[in-house]
Amino acid sequence: MHAIPVWAQAGFWGLVAGAALILGAGVGYYLKVPQRLIAAIMAFGSGVLISALSFELIAEAYDKGGFGSMAAGFLGGAAVYTAARALAVLSRQGAKHRKRSGGQQPSEEEDSGSGLAIAVGALLDGIPESIVIGLSMLGGGAVSTVAVGAIFLSNVPEGLSSAAGMKKAGRSAVYVFGIWGGIAVISGIAALLGYTVFQQFSPQVVAATTAVAAGAILAMLVDTMIPEAFEAAHDFAGLITVAGFLAAFALSKLGA
């Protein structure tokens, strides 16, 4: 892909990672996947993302910007995500259950506007991950395969669980795949912007931004993915999460 502009490559890899949401949604919507299996996949995806946060994002933010920039960004990202999620329009209208595969998601009849709230909530989840992909290409112009792989692997269970829950809530295939298709496209745009917007910024700013995204992702994991994993696979959720963590760690060492 050397002949392709780096900004276009960033958008492409963001789109690839986002497309995993569509893949997962297809499985969750059209196949009857046992809820315990969905929970296990969600636990594995959580472990993958936690590993990527630890060994890719936070470590890189610390190396480039020092502890101050890293810590401020990490806490700031979690705070911004938490504040956005706590907005009444999201919490009241069902977005807090957007990744749940059981009967927690309300239908439009039960809670008017919940579908839009779920879409906005899912968008808040996807943007920080995609920006990280663009940021990883600053400097050398090569994408972090670990970041893309980790986000892809975690997006599959996110799409699967959410789509299964949306179907149970009575939402149509057009609605479900419209949501995830749109978010996949926006993921590509966010990765592109992550590369182009931050090219001229100092390493400290890039480090802080990377840490902001990492903080938002970790807050999202605790708020949405881990509860779904523990709901039905509580006996083995911890073990499966550790397996996901180890898989991503191995991927990072193979790519080193």
Report what the structure shows:
This protein has 256 residues and is an all-alpha fold. Helix content is 79%, strand content 0%. The protein is built from eight helices and no strands. α1 (6-30) packs parallel to α5 (145-168), α2 (35-86) packs across α8 and α4 (114-135) packs across α7 (203-233). It is globular. The model is unreliable at 106-114 (pLDDT under 50).
Summary of the model, kept short:
The protein has 256 residues and is an all-alpha fold. Helices cover 79% and strands 0% of the residues.
Overall average pLDDT:
79
Instruction: Work out the helix count.
Output: 8
The fraction of residues in strands falls at under 5%
Oligomer: single chain
**Tertiary shape:** globular
The low-confidence parts are: 106-114
Alpha-beta classification = mainly alpha
Biggest β-sheet: count, sense, barrel?
none
- What is the H/E string? HHHHHHHH
Helix content: over 70%
Question: Ends: how far apart?
Answer: 20 Å
Number of strands: 0
* Cα-atom radius of gyration: 17 Å
Give keywords.
single chain; 256 residues; mainly alpha
